[in-house]
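Postdoc handover notes: sequence design on the structure in folder B. Input tokens:
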């Protein structure tokens, strides 16, 4: 009788099947985590914009002017940083940001007031997402 070492074909098929099942569970979970992380970045950046706008208001008795075109794919980060140098949004690849002034809230024009928006860029996991925060700290996220 020969002593055979190694794995049988059945054992290898079982291991491959187990790895396939684990991958089928792990990959969607991982992709969901990436989307949540990108959204959390947008929430943090919008809160940062709100705080910087309030600081600007305290120092200048007015909010900044409207900055940028409010839609996905419009990289307004440099324009925002020119008025609010403390705005450091990270990579800025997932979202486009803008600031609008003298907006209408609940049917009433608010002056002075602002609304900062984040739009999910095309080709990213957050494409189509839109989040906003305004001078009264109303959050749309």
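Designed sequence:
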């Amino acid at each position: 009788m020969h002593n055979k070492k190694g794995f049988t074909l059945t054992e290898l098929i079982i291991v491959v099947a187990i790895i396939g099942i684990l991958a089928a569970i792990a990959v969607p979970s991982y992709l969901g985590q990436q989307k949540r992380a990108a959204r959390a970045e947008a929430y943090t950046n919008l809160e940062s914009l709100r705080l910087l706008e309030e600081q600007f208001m305290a120092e200048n008795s007015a909010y900044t002017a409207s900055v940028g075109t409010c839609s996905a794919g419009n990289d307004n980060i440099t324009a925002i940083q020119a008025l609010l140098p403390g705005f450091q949004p990270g990579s800025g690849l997932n979202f486009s940001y803008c600031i609008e002034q003298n907006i209408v809230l609940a049917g009433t024009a608010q002056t002075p007031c602002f609304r900062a928006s984040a739009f999910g860029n095309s080709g990213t996991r957050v494409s189509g997402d839109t989040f906003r925060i305004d001078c009264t700290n109303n959050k749309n996220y």
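Context for whoever picks this up: The chain has one domain: 9-140. Don't rerun without checking with the PI first.
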